[in-house]
Amino acid sequence: MTPPSASRTLAAMTSLSPQSPSSGASRIRIGSAPDSWGVWFPEDPVQVPWQRFLDEVAGSGYEWIELGPYGYLPTDPAVLTEETARRGLKVSAGTVFTGLHHGEAVWDKTWEHVSDIAALTQAMGAEHLVVIPSFWRDDKTGEVLEPDTLTAEQWRNLTSLTERLGREVRERYGLSIVVHPHADTHIDSEENVVRFLDGTDSSLVSLCLDTGHYAYCGGDSVKLIETYGERIGYLHLKQVDPEILADVRANATPFGPAVAQGVMCEPPAGVPALGPVLDAARKLDVDLFAIVEQDMYPCDPDKPLPIARRTRAFLRSCGA
């Protein structure tokens, strides 16, 4: 979204030999997302046009994409199907933002937001809906919007309504929700992620493990996969620059400005090492999407394509 250890990390990663299909490597499907092209909003003059994103993500060697912020890509399924198909692309998931810890009062508004995106996601043949909790401080301005910790009642709201969301989305659209721990939200650190997992029904709620966000918040992705493997339904592959992260923590920098500072970096220069993450995921013996996301909003429009090509080549060296 270039630490001193980058050379050691590179050596460790590139020493991994590609996996054979029988080892389970073929069950991890690699993709990318608008986020890796500096896209955070449906419309923003600093972002690349959606046509350029589709051209470049296909040209980087990816077959799978996410929808990104609703409205960035065409929302007419017929148009989007044509545009993706002629570039050899398929959609793995849509993304929604929720503030379910606020309770029943926000349900109707939340469902209105979710239903449009879920319908498009279903129409595109995808099976997952990535659910990102609302930020407790603004990702652009850093303005504190609410306390950074939840009360016991808010935790009950969050877990029970997320289960309801999982049930409704599955019954109405045939999709599985995967909740995305995220910096500057209430599902962030190992403690809060574990509390959330322990408080929700595994048949209704799975996790989208974003390796970069989890490291940003102090978590160990391999440990989480090994401990809660049955709850991992989706992966976002991302790394953080430890030196910049240390500065971010020291100055309590909000997530948006931290990204502009370069806290999310190009693999394999940061942490966590993605080879061990992929190895741990393979051991789960399930089908998983692993979508590359390197937060870098805002960015020069010519910056993403070379990074995407290098990242895809690097992941191939990890057997993915």
UniProtKB/TrEMBL annotation:
It comes from the Bacteria. Residues 1-14 have a biased composition (Polar residues). Residues 15-26 have a biased composition (Low complexity). Gene3D superfamilies: Divalent-metal-dependent TIM barrel enzymes (3.20.20.150). InterPro entries: IolE/XylAMocC-like (IPR050312), Xyl_isomerase-like_sf (IPR036237), Xyl_isomerase-like_TIM-brl (IPR013022). Residues 1-28 are annotated as: Disordered. It holds the Pfam family AP_endonuc_2. Residues 54-317 form the Xylose isomerase-like TIM barrel domain. SUPFAM superfamilies: Xylose isomerase-like (SSF51658). PANTHER family: HYDROXYPYRUVATE ISOMERASE, INOSOSE DEHYDRATASE. This is Xylose isomerase-like TIM barrel domain-containing protein. It comes from Streptomyces brasiliensis. The lineage of its organism: Bacteria, Bacillati, Actinomycetota, Actinomycetes, Kitasatosporales.
